[in-house]
Amino acid sequence: MNERNNESRNGGRNENAAVDMVATAQAVQQAGDAWRGPGTVKLVAPAKVNLFLGIGSRREDGYHEAVSILHAIALHDVLYLRRATAPADSGDEAVALAGPAHNISVRVECIAREGLAPLSVAASENIVFRAIDALAHEVGRTEPDFLEVRLEKHIPHQAGLGGGSSDAAAALLGTARLWGMALDDPVLERVAHRLGSDVAFFLHGGCAYFDATGERFDHALEPMKRSLVLVRPAKGVSTAEAYRMFDEAPLPIDEGCLWQAKQTTCASDVPLFNNLASASERLMPELDEVKAWLQSQPGVEGVLLCGSGSTTFAMVNGVNEACRLTAAAQAKGWWARSTTFGSLKAAIVP
Q: What's the Cα-to-Cα distance from 321 to each of 63, 229, 270, rounded to whole Å?
């Protein structure tokens, strides 16, 4: 009798949870639909993981030599861009002025989804605004303009998943569309390089090899289509702090892994490597716990920290195994998501 009562109660909770998920999805859709008027541009901005990250010596300009093989994954943010009919209140923190003559009013609304902490930064500090501003300066746009941006965040901040860089790439594409520019105009990639080492990758997507300081595209690799699980503790890791810690005790790149990474043409053959991970793990010892736990789980075929962290990814065989592992990680109090590798890039969608 007690077992039947427990099943009944659990069934009720599951039904309520399902109803809540449907209601949340409907609310997200309705909020997005309110932005889908004439002239609105909708974009997806996928996350990434680093299959290989080899940090080399620090250069005189303060940057490090780096080899990076990045792979896009299905987890993504959503951006909406549109023109407004009048300038927003420039005294509002959500508004900043862009362009060579401060001639473009940009409002940025950022909404955190799926339990993520709100990203509370002024518009002028948001990389989406900086992308629009940099593009306006690059093309010398001096006409008055009023742009509104809605950013729905599904990718956590300071997670090593490239969410900000991907948002910036999407903002470049969306703004180019609003301004009548070709989406393959080389100016977009020039601006992307200046914004950050990962931004240009999201204009290519899929899987790609980058070198120099990690920003120079060398060649594309054949992407994978397998499942993976992302696991992240509550806190993030500052990339600047991770590099500072790395410089205190540099870990050399494994030359055998580097040679293999340079030769391979398929993402599935890339050796998993990250010599920045130990620095991040010293900053946040909980990352060691996450890694050890994932490595101990059945069905896991590879574990690596994403960039400077704080997300660790685990490659698994199949969706069912990914869902099981995700639920187990969430039960331990960690943020976790199951997703897949893919050939996504920042892109305009219908």
A: 39, 9, 22
